[in-house]
Amino acid sequence: QVQLIESGGGLVQAGGSLRLSCEISGRTASTYSLGWFRQAPGKVREFVSALLWNGGNEYYGDRMSDRFAIYLDKSRNSVYLQMNRLKPEDTAIYYCALQEEGKASYEYWGRGTQVTVSS
Q1: Closest Cα to residue 1, out of 107, 115, 119, 82?
Q2: Percent of the chain with pLDDT over 70
Q3: SS3 for 75?
Q4: Would residue 25 be called left, alpha or beta, if left means φ above 0 and alpha means ψ between -120 and 50 degrees?
Q5: DSSP letter assigned to residue 88
Q6: Which residues contact 84 (CB under 8 A, 6 or more apart)?
Q7: How far, in Å, CA of 1 to CA of 60, rounded?
Q8: 117 touches 13 (CB < 8 A)
Q9: Does residue 47 carry a pLDDT above 90?
Q10: Burial class (CB in 10 A: 0-12, 13-18, 19+), 75
Q11: Quick check: helix, strand or coil at residue 94?
Q12: Does the pLDDT of residue 91 top 90, yes or no?
């Protein structure tokens, strides 16, 4: 059973930084991609970033690559999202997700971690 547990959220002032962590357990050899998404109150879920488990490209949502960075530590079975120069509009619940090979979408999701950026 794949489980994803996010951590690292919190309250930060605008301009500050946070590093989100997502620990993965129960992962299989079919792991294809790991992603971060976010959802602000009253808004639809938004793609933040993703990478491929076996290396290669990283992907970012609109206007996020200049402030956010995704990276993977296979030895810790964890994926991270470094967020810099945070803005109040980054306030949301951030979710980690896992996509398996051959699947059209992310099937496994964590419960999320709250990020609040004060102005």
Answers
A1: 107
A2: 100
A3: helix
A4: beta
A5: G
A6: 17, 67, 68, 69
A7: 28
A8: yes
A9: yes
A10: exposed
A11: strand
A12: yes
CA distances from 2 to 25, 26, 87, 108, 116 (A): 6, 4, 32, 7, 28
In DSSP terms, 89 is beta-bridged to: none
Under 8 Å CB-to-CB from 41, ≥6 apart: which residues?
none
Q: pLDDT over 90 for what percent of the chain? A: 87
Q: How many CB atoms lie within 10 A of CB 34?
A: 25
Q: Do the Cβ atoms of 2 and 108 come closer than 8 Å?
A: yes
Q: Which two tokens stand for residue 41?
A: 């109150």
Q: Which two tokens stand for residue 40?
A: 């602000």
